[in-house]
Amino acid sequence: MNAKPSTAAPAPPSSVPRPIRTAASLILLRESDRGMEVLLLRRAEKADDQNSGASVFPGGVVDTHDRSLHLMCKGLDDLAASTRLGISDGGLDYYAAAVRECFEEAGILFASDSEDRLVELDGLPPGRLEAMRHAAEQGTDALLAMCEAQGWLLAMDRLAYFSHWLTPPGMPRRFDTRFFIAQMPSAQDVRPDGREIVAHMWLKPAEAVDPARGLKLMNVTRRTLEQLAAFDSAEHCMTHARALTGIPLNMPRLADGPAGRRAVNIDEAAYQEIGRLDPEGRGDARYALEAGLATQLSPRIRRVAGDAQSPHSYFVSGDGGQWALIDPAPLGSAQAGAAPGPVRWLLSTAARTDESAAALEHLRSSSWPDATVLWPEPGETLDLSGATLRVLHSGAAIDGAQARQFLLAEERFLFTGAAGTPAVHTNDETEWIAPASGFIVRRIG
Predict the structure, then answer these.
(1) What tens digit of pLDDT does each residue of 72-92 get?
(2) Contact 381, 390 (CB under 8 A)
(3) CA 165/CA 249 separation, integer angstroms
(4) The pTM is what?
(5) Taking the C-alpha atoms of 96, 101, 106 and 108 in order, what is their torsion angle to the nearest 10 degrees?
(6) Which one of 113, 150, 246, 364 has the lowest number of neighbouring Cβ atoms within 10 Å?
């Protein structure tokens, strides 16, 4: 097992923060003989566009003039919309932008007539409909004038708030996007604008994410489609959406790994570690830990990933440049090659038995002959020349011998070991948990 560098040399973060633009998107559903289908629009191919050629939901940037559409909104005011989105004000801007963008890109308009019926655009002469749409595309004021002339109100009560996504740090363009969901109005047809949108399709969500179909899908689109695939009908999905409370912010993070750089979502095991190691979004943290991979978790801590048969090993140091090695792997050469400095102490989270003691002594003599093997008892404290390791009970024992965990006090970092469980120590002294395998995680609670 050879020690490998955790990443290539990181790119320096930009000194100018990337602006984050607010946006809104509208997911349209319909029932068909095949079941529930969702509308996807294919964006035009454009240079320097991270979404070029992608299949997307209708949507776009919230315009500063969208607030003027409040006058024409039905079924929701700004206070209720803002409360629903968890912001102080301006919530109705997002709903208005979602409706406006859907009309501009797909020709679908969520508007009600004087009898509270969704407007039937298919009954209009084609020339008149195109003229209305062209006028609306000229700006929010034109859409407002069009609705006033027709006696229509924008039907915000037909939309349900569904999700909230923020583009990962490090992307060329970042969007803070609210996603809404609605059922396709009857007596309306999808008409792509032919400029921003060049094609459309109605697909079952599972079909859309099938690799055989070959659609270019952004991470947020794919994840949303996977979520929609769990519903057997549009009505079921809408009922679910209207009952949602406390919708969280989803902000993926870019990371590297065997399949190349990709977005890592908040429910993936690597997410919290990536956020700690790469908050700027350089993309040089990892979403997979190959055996022997060396990762600098902090100036005081370096991890060497274990394989299926052995736990991770952790080098821990104070200010003196001498290191303690917690849980060296049976093949100590991998850790020796990754050592950031002289190893003075060898420690184990395992219970001390004749077998474990002999194994650790063998590693010392073969790989770190100048180191000292220590078996401190829970309750003791080790001084690592400027850093403090507290020895804690792990809650596990073998033949009466107590396994242990180590808490690096200065960083509130708990090394749980193979026998330990993160739930044993959840007090305020611990902020991060370093497990025997997998990624470090932030303590909850």
Answers:
(1) 999 999 999 999 999 999 999
(2) yes
(3) 6
(4) 0.87
(5) 10
(6) 246
The one-letter amino acid at 61: V
* Secondary structure, 3-state, the chain: CCCEECCCCCCCCCCCCCCEEEEEEEEEEEEECCEEEEEEEEECCCCCCCCCCCEECCEEECCHHHHHHHHHEECCCHHHHHHHHCCCCCHHHHHHHHHHHHHHHHCCCCEECCCCCECCHHHCCHHHHHHHHHHHHCCHHHHHHHHHHHCCEEEHHHCEEEEEEECCCCCCCEEEEEEEEEECCCCCCCCCCCCCEEEEEEECHHHHHCHHHCCCCCHHHHHHHHHHCCCCCHHHHHHHHHHCCCCCEECCEEEECCCCCEEECCCCCCHHHHHHHCCCCCCCCECCCCCCEEEEEECCEEEECCCCCCCCEEEEECCCCCEEEECCCCCHHHHHHHCCCCEEEEECCCCCCHHHHHHHHHHHHHHCCCCEECCCCCCCEEECCCCEEEEEEEEEEECCEEEEEEEEHHHCEEEEECCCCCCCCCCCCCCEEEECCCCCEECCC
**Separation in Å, CA 336 to CA 309, 323, 361, 365:** 18, 12, 15, 12
Residues sharing a CB contact under 8 Å with residue 368, sequence separation 6 or more, in sequence order = 325, 328, 332, 336, 343, 346
Architecture in CATH for domain 20-250 = Alpha-Beta Complex (3.90)
Q: Which CATH class is domain 289-442?
A: alpha beta
Domain ranges of the chain: 20-250, 289-442
d(CA 408, CA 391): 9
